[in-house]
């Protein structure tokens, strides 16, 4: 009975449901059918879709950038014909150019290249590759494969590549890309070499004091082949085609081929970014970098002293990087190239900051680390032309770079608001430490290195001047952090003194407190950037003096270090006082001041500077122990003289009179 009851109940339920469905009026949704109340019953909220699979849906998410280059024989770039996808002429030329750059010196053709990400499902065009007539024995596996070229990717695309494929890449809380440079967290100057051939042997600065370590052409080619073979063995390489020098008449076309998205984004920020139209007509680069990153050099190769080698061949206009992932090698390598090429055009290349007042007055700032160059050249009342590398031509000054490379250690919003605010999407943060959850950066943490850095486009600085060019400088400011406490806070220099102190490139570093040692240590770097210059320092100094004389510029020596005693007994000159001094230089008021000359160094110091205590303008007046002052002054003078002995044998001009004038401008005792 129970079973029959259950069955009857189920049957009654099925019958009732069917009857209920049949009793409901049908809703007509067919196109063209009439409905008594179409505004209520017509279901048209979801239009038909244009995809049938999830891959097709994803393909609709991104649209191609509109090409502007016409095809050969008519038509529109990017249109697919009967023979498959068509490569725009500019893309085809780019691939052919990159293939030529990556060509082995022992093979007849370059590698087979495809434009685009190897993981992309979309069909991509490749560079036409002419088969060689080499016998089968000469064909290598690398010659059979295609290498994907990721050409001038946007920051967003490079973020995706870095985060997906490069361990140690993260997005910070402000949107910057944090990454690691591997075992090398700074430049390797002892592993940097320049090819010495007949031309460079005569033109470059070699020997004692020079940063140029020689190598021969054959060794360079061995290292080049090693780097090129490594890059060609990869599934993909990053290629940046960009410019150096904002002066359009003297800019340099550079190509950077690298293995990491980090390196590509770094150079995207640091070099000048071409417009789409400029990129289409980029053509053959003037200089090429092959950055093999972590792939080491062969230690058994001649001249190699470690697994790292940074090699420059000025004749071939090429640079090879092996065994280091530190991105700064590319930036400073190109700076060295500019130090060689620009003087040939009678253009002075300078390791300096540069800003411009609202009236068009330009000032150059030279200074080593710790002198305040970045702080003093970044002035909210003036336009920033650049913070590090510049050219001075017949038409004025121009920034070499398209970005800034700022130190981040102990960075604080209150001290450096412009740098702090520039660390956002698109910025590369090197070797910083951040919270694993919030991704907030701790700029005081030195766990990885003290040399933490941020690389960002110069447009990220609110008062930057775009384009980064300006008229001839009126003031040339040499900054020194004198921890001995004997140099005046401000001195006006004549041309010979400007050349002497420019060649010297002096500052003083304070030693650590280990075992109670607190003595300052003098540091000299010729032209305030000895590690990057190619020619003898006196050549750059002579060009500087010539341009200053022609344009009526004034030289100044500004001490941002100690007063009233050396480090440990005196006190650091207040930044507010130094800013008052710089303001007086910019305004021109110091040109009308009265001056007196100091002993030993023969520096002219003003009797008065508005807003600066007069008792610190003359260093001896601020010292309680006058004898200690004299002893310290003589000590520093001897250090200057000993350092300058490196340059005394180099004569400037036919008679060498200018050399004698420079020597006479130094300390006299």
TrEMBL record:
Signal peptide stretch: none
Catalyzed reactions: oxaloacetate + ATP = phosphoenolpyruvate + ADP + CO2
Entry keyword annotation includes Nucleotide-binding: yes
First-tier enzyme category under EC: lyase
Region annotated Disordered, chain positions: 24-88
Family: Belongs to the phosphoenolpyruvate carboxykinase (ATP) family.
Protein name: phosphoenolpyruvate carboxykinase (ATP)
Organism: Camelina sativa (False flax)
